[in-house]
Specification:
It holds the Pfam family DMT_YdcZ. InterPro entries: YdcZ (IPR006750). The chain is mainly alpha-helical. The chain has three domains: about 1-30 and about 40-60, no CATH class; about 65-115; about 130-178, no CATH class. It has six helices and no strands.
Length: about 180
């Protein structure tokens, strides 16, 4: 779910960020500073991060993984071009013709790539059953009644029977036994 993805990603970032912050503070002699007057910045950054992570957990189901990546890439390039042109990082990098052409080519490539996937044949739905380690038949196929066995349980029983026979008789024998 989106909430679980957001929580997991944020937790990993926090856990990984603490040692990195300690190393930066110790290595460069810069003490971390948190002031109450910056609360609105922390609140905005938290909501933005949650929205970003939640969006990335949902977009691939709608657009596909490749199109989601390309949209993300275009967004990064466009926003970094604005940041460079306005000097947000301290140095102004002008948005010239070549940068504009490169950004336009990425936009065009993304559009062409997305249009190319629309003609793909849709995959028919599969009736795949979920194999769970909580299923008693998964641990021991003898725990399941014959009438209740799913295809997966029957497959597991066949594999177990084949292994008990040394792998022969089920097409799993060695070259000498085949």
């Amino acid at each position: 779910s989106s909430a679980r993805s957001t929580l997991f990603s944020s937790s990993v970032s926090l856990i990984a960020g603490i040692p990195i912050g300690i190393c930066v503070a110790a290595g460069f002699g810069v003490a971390p500073t948190v002031t109450p007057r910056d609360w609105y910045l922390w609140l905005f950054a938290g909501f933005q991060s949650a929205f970003f992570i939640a969006s990335l957990s949902q977009l691939p189901a709608v657009l596909g993984y490749t199109a989601s990546y390309l949209v993300l890439l275009v967004g990064k390039l466009a926003s970094s071009s604005v940041a460079d042109a306005t000097g947000l990082s301290g140095k102004v990098v002008p948005f010239d013709f070549l940068r504009g052409l490169a950004l336009t080519m990425v936009f065009a490539g993304t559009a062409l790539f997305s249009l190319g996937g629309q003609n793909a044949q849709e995959e028919p739905e599969r009736n795949a059953s979920i194999v769970s380690s909580f299923d008693p038949a998964f641990v021991d196929p003898a725990n399941a009644q014959e009438s209740e066995l799913s295809d997966d349980a029957k497959l597991r029983q066949g594999i177990a029977a084949s292994a008990a026979c040394g792998g022969e008789g089920a097409g799993l024998g060695t070259a000498a036994g085949a």
